[in-house]
Amino acid sequence: MSVDEPLVLGIETSCDETGIGVVRGTTLLADAVASSMSEHARYGGVVPEVASRAHLAAMAGTMREALDTAGVRLSDVDAVAVTAGPGLAGALLVGVAAAKAYALAANKPLYGVNHLSAHVAVDTLEHGPLPEPAIAMLVSGGHSSLLMVEDLAGRVEPLGATIDDAAGEAFDKVARLLGLPFPGGPPIDKAARDGDPVAIDFPRGLTSPRDLQRHRFDFSFSGLKTAVARWVEARERSGEPVPVDDVAASFQEAVCDVLSRKAIDACRSNGIDTLLIGGGVAANSRLRAMATERAERYGIRVRVPRPKLCTDNGAMVAALGSHLVAAAVPPSTLDIPADSSLPVTTVSLANRIGA
Amino acid sequence: MLVLGVDTATAAVTAVFAEVTDDGVRELATEVTVAGQAHGERLAPAIETVLTATGHAPADLSAVVAGTGPGPFTGLRVGLVTATALGQTLAIPTYDVCTLDALGAVAGPGRVLVATDARRKEIYWASYLDGVRQTEPAVAKPAEVAAGLAVDRAVGDGAAKYAEVLGVPVADEPRYPVGTALVALAADRIRAGAPTETLVPRYLRRPDVTPAAAPKPVSTR
Ligand SMILES: [Zn+2]
Fold it and tell me: Which residues form the Gcp-like domain (chain B) (predicted)?
């Protein structure tokens, strides 16, 4: 096994994307994704059982596509990595069971890994090894976390997280209020480009001096969502048209303001000069621009993977797996569980007891 | 030919390693664990155990047979994705067997109800005559099944659980799918080298369409 440049296959099924990626070292060879998003759209959110069924139906085909694209066989890889959690329990289980079978059939080591750490690791495919320590902000429909990454192979500590809605969830809910499609991130980003970001002064959750004492690095988006709903309802009651572009721009500004402010505070207070942003919301153009601009003032470098790598995919799992193999982290046993609430501090499941 | 059989459509996780010969099926090793909800944790180690216990490796397999349910969805998928991945990686065919048949075929002569626990106070069921299935697998409340029932006895964990409602004698065995029976039900296809079969779960129920609840914060200070 080449320890420097391990060839690793990664499987991701924690939500609605069946992702299988192949990575050699920090080089991306394949990133096959089958999404069941369209099946969930009419319910306004991901339906777990629908997602789980789709994962099973898509698994073998996605695997074939990934291996063909990478031009490798399963017998060539150094390890099989899989998201063991956190995520939707039934969805995770399809990927974990599949990964065990692929690893067993091909006689390869198995790595059950943490989805959040995988979001961090994927950036190595684009920008090379991550300087450590780094601060990572992961924002998506399922998570909003600030992490201290001391060692991507094993020491990741939570600094804060959302205390109610995830950032991406707020985008989805506000999009629904405005009659925009699900998922809400892309259409809000688009509408906001034609809107005035200071037209409406929406609240910035957990930023008051008192809140900062207890929740300095935590997020809250539920109050913001409610404020947008009240504002839109008041407009509708008065019979005036709702300025969708302005509402989208002002809402987005509030979210990005809080996210970038807290992320940079986390960097400065810990003396860290690398900020990594990942997760689906990292694809938001305003968040990228605002965080980069504000970080520059303090000499902080912002790393954001390209949008396709920000959303859930197998490449990120393979990237983390590759990092773990290179760092000689012991593999997982075949009896590891899929853990829907896997703590962020567990980067990989060396064994059940260790979980 | 050396064949692996797996079934995870009931509370039991079953892995059987068997030899299919011209005139029969011989069990070489079997692992059955009544695992509750731990199918994902138990199946792969069980497969590894039945192979290594007999000095074999996955590469020695010629086919994989899977019980495709009906059964509770989450556990059922573990067996099917496992069998599918094994078949794909080893480039060997996979064969589909109705899980209820892996009880009905070995439940003895006469008219038999096979019923497994479908949770939500329902059973997955089918009726058999001399080991041959007479009805399509279905899911229903035990009382509804009892109403139209004309059998001598019943088998399966669902029958045991609702014995009183069903009102027929319940035999102790088989309680869960029998591994060698599962393989035997595909033996003709295995011998004939029949084309691989896509393993499609017999869900019999539509998914609940409640979107995922707001995720809990992953971490709090
Ligand atoms: Zn994610």
Answer: 34-161
